[in-house]
Amino acid sequence: MSTWTDSRPLRSAGALAVCAVAVTAAALIGVLGVQGTTERYAELQQPGWAPPSWLFGPVWTVLYAMIAVSGWLVWRRTGWSRELVPYAVQLVLNAIWTPLFFGADRIGLALVEIVLLWAAIAWTVMTFRQVSRPAAALLLPYWAWTTFAAALNATIWWLNR
Q1: Please, are residues 140 and 62 in contact by the beta-carbon 8 Å criterion?
Q2: pTM of this prediction?
Q3: Eight-class DSSP state of 49
Protein backbone atom coordinates (compact mmCIF):
# COMPACT_ATOMS: atom_id res chain seq x y z
CA MET A 1 0.00 0.00 0.00
CA SER A 2 1.55 3.26 -1.10
CA THR A 3 1.07 6.44 0.86
CA TRP A 4 2.10 10.04 0.14
CA THR A 5 5.16 9.59 2.39
CA ASP A 6 6.13 6.38 0.61
CA SER A 7 5.93 7.98 -2.83
CA ARG A 8 7.31 11.40 -1.86
CA PRO A 9 10.96 10.69 -2.81
CA LEU A 10 9.85 9.42 -6.22
CA ARG A 11 7.52 12.42 -6.70
CA SER A 12 10.28 14.77 -5.57
CA ALA A 13 12.73 13.25 -8.06
CA GLY A 14 10.09 13.57 -10.76
CA ALA A 15 9.56 17.23 -9.91
CA LEU A 16 13.31 17.85 -10.06
CA ALA A 17 13.37 16.17 -13.45
CA VAL A 18 10.48 18.35 -14.66
CA CYS A 19 12.29 21.51 -13.46
CA ALA A 20 15.49 20.34 -15.15
CA VAL A 21 13.64 19.58 -18.41
CA ALA A 22 11.90 22.97 -18.35
CA VAL A 23 15.18 24.80 -17.81
CA THR A 24 16.92 22.67 -20.45
CA ALA A 25 14.13 23.44 -22.93
CA ALA A 26 14.58 27.18 -22.32
CA ALA A 27 18.32 26.80 -22.88
CA LEU A 28 17.94 24.65 -25.98
CA ILE A 29 15.62 27.13 -27.68
CA GLY A 30 18.51 29.59 -27.59
CA VAL A 31 21.27 27.13 -28.42
CA LEU A 32 19.59 25.08 -31.13
CA GLY A 33 17.20 27.67 -32.46
CA VAL A 34 19.93 30.09 -33.45
CA GLN A 35 23.07 29.16 -35.34
CA GLY A 36 26.20 31.28 -35.56
CA THR A 37 25.81 33.16 -32.28
CA THR A 38 29.56 33.14 -31.64
CA GLU A 39 30.27 34.59 -35.07
CA ARG A 40 27.49 37.16 -34.78
CA TYR A 41 28.65 38.20 -31.31
CA ALA A 42 32.19 38.68 -32.64
CA GLU A 43 30.90 40.86 -35.52
CA LEU A 44 29.15 43.31 -33.22
CA GLN A 45 30.81 46.44 -31.91
CA GLN A 46 31.20 45.78 -28.20
CA PRO A 47 32.35 47.65 -25.13
CA GLY A 48 35.77 46.85 -23.72
CA TRP A 49 34.15 45.12 -20.75
CA ALA A 50 32.24 42.60 -22.90
CA PRO A 51 33.15 39.02 -21.98
CA PRO A 52 34.53 36.62 -24.59
CA SER A 53 31.88 34.41 -26.20
CA TRP A 54 33.35 31.20 -24.70
CA LEU A 55 32.41 32.41 -21.21
CA PHE A 56 28.65 32.36 -21.81
CA GLY A 57 28.33 28.55 -22.03
CA PRO A 58 29.94 27.75 -18.66
CA VAL A 59 28.18 30.61 -16.90
CA TRP A 60 24.76 29.63 -18.25
CA THR A 61 25.33 25.96 -17.44
CA VAL A 62 25.85 26.80 -13.77
CA LEU A 63 22.99 29.30 -13.73
CA TYR A 64 20.55 26.90 -15.37
CA ALA A 65 21.39 24.21 -12.81
CA MET A 66 20.74 26.71 -10.02
CA ILE A 67 17.46 27.79 -11.63
CA ALA A 68 16.28 24.17 -11.83
CA VAL A 69 17.14 23.43 -8.19
CA SER A 70 15.46 26.66 -7.11
CA GLY A 71 12.19 25.69 -8.79
CA TRP A 72 12.41 22.23 -7.30
CA LEU A 73 12.91 23.59 -3.77
CA VAL A 74 9.73 25.64 -4.10
CA TRP A 75 7.84 22.70 -5.57
CA ARG A 76 8.88 20.60 -2.55
CA ARG A 77 7.14 23.10 -0.29
CA THR A 78 4.09 23.99 -2.39
CA GLY A 79 3.61 21.36 -5.07
CA TRP A 80 2.50 22.62 -8.47
CA SER A 81 1.16 25.93 -7.26
CA ARG A 82 0.72 29.59 -8.17
CA GLU A 83 4.13 30.27 -6.60
CA LEU A 84 5.63 28.63 -9.69
CA VAL A 85 3.87 31.00 -12.12
CA PRO A 86 6.63 33.66 -12.06
CA TYR A 87 9.17 30.86 -12.46
CA ALA A 88 7.44 29.71 -15.65
CA VAL A 89 7.15 33.30 -16.93
CA GLN A 90 10.86 33.99 -16.47
CA LEU A 91 11.75 30.71 -18.19
CA VAL A 92 9.67 31.67 -21.23
CA LEU A 93 11.25 35.13 -21.34
CA ASN A 94 14.69 33.57 -20.93
CA ALA A 95 14.04 31.32 -23.92
CA ILE A 96 12.93 34.23 -26.10
CA TRP A 97 15.97 36.49 -25.67
CA THR A 98 18.59 34.63 -27.76
CA PRO A 99 16.33 34.16 -30.80
CA LEU A 100 15.44 37.87 -30.65
CA PHE A 101 19.01 39.11 -30.23
CA PHE A 102 20.78 36.73 -32.60
CA GLY A 103 18.17 34.99 -34.74
CA ALA A 104 16.03 38.01 -35.59
CA ASP A 105 18.90 40.49 -35.15
CA ARG A 106 16.51 42.65 -33.14
CA ILE A 107 18.95 43.99 -30.54
CA GLY A 108 16.65 46.84 -29.46
CA LEU A 109 13.66 44.55 -29.03
CA ALA A 110 15.89 42.09 -27.17
CA LEU A 111 16.77 44.93 -24.82
CA VAL A 112 13.09 45.53 -24.03
CA GLU A 113 12.62 41.80 -23.59
CA ILE A 114 15.58 41.43 -21.21
CA VAL A 115 14.20 44.22 -19.04
CA LEU A 116 10.96 42.21 -18.84
CA LEU A 117 13.05 39.13 -18.01
CA TRP A 118 14.85 41.06 -15.27
CA ALA A 119 11.48 42.08 -13.78
CA ALA A 120 10.20 38.49 -14.02
CA ILE A 121 13.28 37.24 -12.17
CA ALA A 122 12.65 39.88 -9.48
CA TRP A 123 9.05 38.67 -9.21
CA THR A 124 10.28 35.08 -8.94
CA VAL A 125 12.86 35.93 -6.26
CA MET A 126 10.27 37.82 -4.19
CA THR A 127 7.72 35.02 -4.55
CA PHE A 128 10.24 32.28 -3.81
CA ARG A 129 11.59 34.17 -0.78
CA GLN A 130 8.20 33.76 0.90
CA VAL A 131 8.37 30.00 0.37
CA SER A 132 12.07 29.10 0.55
CA ARG A 133 14.94 31.47 1.20
CA PRO A 134 17.48 29.03 -0.30
CA ALA A 135 15.38 28.86 -3.49
CA ALA A 136 15.35 32.66 -3.71
CA ALA A 137 19.09 32.83 -2.98
CA LEU A 138 19.84 30.38 -5.80
CA LEU A 139 18.28 32.86 -8.24
CA LEU A 140 20.41 35.84 -7.16
CA PRO A 141 23.41 35.00 -9.38
CA TYR A 142 20.99 34.61 -12.33
CA TRP A 143 19.44 37.98 -11.53
CA ALA A 144 22.89 39.57 -11.28
CA TRP A 145 24.02 38.00 -14.58
CA THR A 146 20.82 39.18 -16.26
CA THR A 147 21.52 42.69 -14.94
CA PHE A 148 24.97 42.51 -16.51
CA ALA A 149 23.54 41.04 -19.73
CA ALA A 150 20.96 43.84 -19.92
CA ALA A 151 23.71 46.45 -19.59
CA LEU A 152 25.71 44.65 -22.27
CA ASN A 153 22.63 44.40 -24.52
CA ALA A 154 21.97 48.14 -24.08
CA THR A 155 25.58 49.04 -24.86
CA ILE A 156 25.74 46.78 -27.91
CA TRP A 157 22.44 48.23 -29.16
CA TRP A 158 23.85 51.75 -28.72
CA LEU A 159 27.15 50.93 -30.46
CA ASN A 160 25.51 49.12 -33.38
CA ARG A 161 22.43 51.24 -34.14
Answers
A1: no
A2: 0.86
A3: T
Contacts of residue 74, defined as CB under 8 A and 6 or more positions apart, other chains included, come to 83, 84, 87, 128, 131, 132, 135
Q: When comparing pLDDT for 8 and 131, which is higher?
A: 131
DSSP-assigned letter for residue 48:
T
Q: How far is CA 35 from the centre of its chain?
A: 19
Quote the number of domains for the chain.
Answer: 1
Q: Concatenated DSSP letters for 91-156? A: HHHHHHHHIIIIIS--HHHHHHHHHHHHHHHHHHHHHHHHH-HHHHHHHHHHHHHHHHHHHHHHHH
Q: What is the CATH number of the domain that holds 18?
A: 1.20.1260.100
pLDDT digits (tens, 9 = 90+) for 83-133: 999 999 999 999 999 999 988 899 999 999 999 999 999 999 999 999 999
**Structural domain range at position 103:** 4-160
